[in-house]
Design brief:
Layout: E1 2-5, H1 7-10, H2 13-24, E2 29-31, H3 34-44, H4 51-65, H5 75-79, H6 89-97, E3 102-104, H7 113-118, E4 122-124, H8 126-136, H9 138-156, H10 162-168, H11 172-179
Parallel strand pairs: 1-2, 1-3, 3-4
Helix pairs in contact: 2-9, 3-4, 8-9, 8-11, 10-11
């Protein structure tokens, strides 16, 4: 399954690392464009001095991890598309050009289901998408999430409980499934 990751799901570090881990484990194939990664790194600047530089380094690692996922969009695709927010047309165009199956995003209102369905695409919220992957591959997803939790713990130098960590990035269903 090929999936476009919208910039809004790449911005929260924990969410991005879980999505990357699931992709690296072969549970899906991440599709991205330079513009999507640029939006993510630009958004990181809001976190303070140096944050954008860190995000650019993380984006370089993302590019290296998924080189086949890079999609170049022809202007003709974007020109024929209409979305409620014109700034999101490039995400839909990336999905079309990359022959994706879905777009993972928090922005449901910006990607109407009927528009995506006309292009053979689905919109997935990150929690539902990751919950589905966990339902199909529980051991793999448990290992991915535990690696992210352990990394957060190592960085903070303190114990990090799984459920609050996942809830902070709006992964409620995934947290519940992993606690079961």
């Amino acid at each position: 399954m090929k999936v476009v990751l919208d910039a809004c799901v790449l911005f929260p570090t924990v969410l991005r690392e879980i999505l990357q881990g699931a992709g690296a484990a072969g549970l899906y194939e991440p599709i991205w464009s330079d513009r999507i990664l640029g939006e993510w790194t630009h958004s990181a600047a809001k976190l303070g001095p140096g944050a954008q530089v860190v995000a650019e380094g993380e984006a370089a690692l993302f590019r290296a991890a998924f080189p086949r996922g890079r999609v170049a969009v022809s202007p003709g695709i974007e020109a024929r598309l209409l979305l409620p927010d014109p700034a999101d047309v490039h995400v839909l165009a990336t999905a079309i050009a990359g022959h994706a199956d879905a777009i993972v995003t928090f922005n449901a209102q910006d990607f109407p289901g009927h528009v995506l369905a006309a292009e053979g695409l689905a919109r997935r919220d990150p929690d539902g998408f990751l919950w589905e992957l966990q339902s199909r591959h529980p051991a793999v997803m448990a290992a991915v999430v535990e690696a992210v939790r352990a990394r957060a713990e190592a960085i903070s130098g303190q114990a990090v409980a799984l459920k609050p960590l996942l809830k902070r990035v709006r992964l409620f269903r995934l947290a519940k499934a992993l606690q079961a």
